[in-house]
Design brief:
Layout: H1 10-34, H2 38-55, H3 65-83, H4 93-108, H5 110-122, H6 126-137, H7 142-149, H8 153-180
Helix pairs in contact: 1-2, 1-3, 1-4, 2-3, 3-4, 5-8
């Protein structure tokens, strides 16, 4: 019996794993929007990954991988819903379709948001960048950072609140200016 992982050549395998790795967070969040129970969303995500793998040779590489994955995810969710139809906690088909369209659109902006965040962070003063990198990105505690930086804890909390607000406004401003172009 042939190994399903070896059904693609090594070049295709590398492309597939790279594309899936890049978009797995967005694909799962898309599914999670449509499936109310986390454990069910995980199951659906596993089925989606298998389907993406099996159908990858049909994928048009000129298309957006995320959009293609959302299409497959949508139909996988619909199949899952049919198999769990008696559960009263599931959404109507019309609602699922509306949520699917909106969520794909929202998650499509995710990479743009990350790029804008990076641009906005680059515009901050070096000490502010260091604070955000250590506390937010490296998940170092604010208390620990306050000790090593010899700064008051409340001052750092206040600064973080200010910086988060400033970054959010900067990102929103970039989205607005992009829409006007």
């Amino acid at each position: 019996m042939p190994d399903s992982f070896s059904s693609l050549n090594s070049s295709s395998r590398a492309v597939f794993t790279s594309l899936l790795d890049k978009d797995r967070f967005r694909i799962f969040n898309y599914i999670r929007t449509l499936v109310p129970h986390y454990s069910d969303a995980e199951d659906v995500y596993q089925h989606v990954c298998l389907t993406l793998w099996k159908k990858f040779d049909e994928f048009d590489r000129d298309r957006d991988f995320f959009s293609w994955a959302c299409g497959i995810s949508f139909y996988t969710v619909c199949n899952h819903r049919r198999s769990t139809r008696n559960d009263r906690h599931y959404f109507s088909q019309d609602l699922v379709e509306a949520m699917a369209q909106q969520r794909e659109k929202d998650l499509g902006k995710y990479n743009r948001r990350i790029q804008f965040l990076q641009d906005c962070m680059n515009g901050l003063a070096t000490p502010d960048q260091q604070l955000l990198q250590k506390v937010v990105l490296k998940k170092k505690s604010v208390k620990e950072f306050a000790k090593t930086a010899d700064r008051a804890l409340q001052t750092l909390y206040n600064r973080l609140t200010f910086l988060r607000r400033e970054l959010a406004e900067c990102i929103l401003s970039k989205f607005k200016s992009e829409r006007q172009v």
